[in-house]
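General statements about sequence and structure are easier to judge against a single worked case. When preparing material for the folding task, we compiled for one chain both its residues and its C-alpha cells. The amino acid sequence and the C-alpha cells for this protein are reproduced below:
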Amino acid sequence: MKTKFLLLTISLFLSISLTANNDDVWGPTGHRATGKIAEKHLTKKAQKKITELLQGESLAFVSTYADEIKSDRKKYGKFYTWHYVNMPLDARYEDSKKNPDGDLITGIEECVKVLKDKNSTTEDKRFYLKMLVHLIGDLHQPMHIGQSEDKGGNTIQVQWHGKGSNLHRVWDEDLINKWDMSYIELANNAKRLSKDQIKAIQKGSVVDWMYDTHKLTKKVYNSVEVGENLRYRYSYDYFPVVREQLQKGGLRLAKLLNEIFC
C-alpha cells in the first residue's frame, strides 16, 4: 500500500513539474491556421512582396519559426520575452510594470519598424517577418496576456480528459488537438464574415488588439478550478472561442502586412 502511494506521489510530482515549466504558445496547428487565414486576406501587392521575401514559403509555414529558434538561447535568447505580456487582470498595459527585456507588444513594434525601414537588409526583413507572423498569433492566445505569478497559467494545474495538464497548455494545444483538425481545415472552416465585420475586427492598434484578448484572459482564469478535470463540456464551451481567436489573429495579421507592404 505504501509503495503504491509512493509511486502515485512521484507520478503526480513529475506531471506537475513537467507542465509547470511548459512555456509554449499556440501549438503549431493554431499558428499555421492563423497564417493560412491571413494569406486569404492579403492584397495582391502584399502577397507578391511577401512571397519574394520568404522565397516562396507560406505564412503558415513560417508561423512556427519563432518557437523553433527558442531552444538556441545563446543566439536568440533576447527574443524569449517577446512571446508574452505579463500584467495584472485589472491593470492597463500603459500603467503596468514593463519587462526590461521587452514583451509581446514591443516585439511586434520592433518587427514592424524593421520591415518598414528601407535600409533594413533582406535577411533582417525575412527574419522579422517570420517573427511577426508568430507574435500576432501569440497576441490572440489569452494566456499570453496573463499574470506573472502563475506564468500565464502554466502553474495552474488541471486535468485534460483525466491526464495532467495546466491552464496554459489547455489553451495552447489541448483544445485544438482534441478536435483533430489540420490547420487547413481550421482555416477553411473559419466563420464567414461580412466586409463590415472584418473591418470591425481589424480596427484599432496592436495595443487595442491586446486589450481585446485580455478581456478573454480574465474569463479563462475564472473558467476552471485548480485540479479540475476538463472534459467535453469545456471543449464545447471554448473551442468556438479558440476558433474565433485564430480567425481574429489571421485577419489582423493580414491588415498589418497589407499596411507594411502597400
In short: The chain has a mean pLDDT of 91. The first strand starts at residue 157 and ends at 160. The longest helix spans residues 232-260. DSSP finds 13 helices and three strands in the chain.
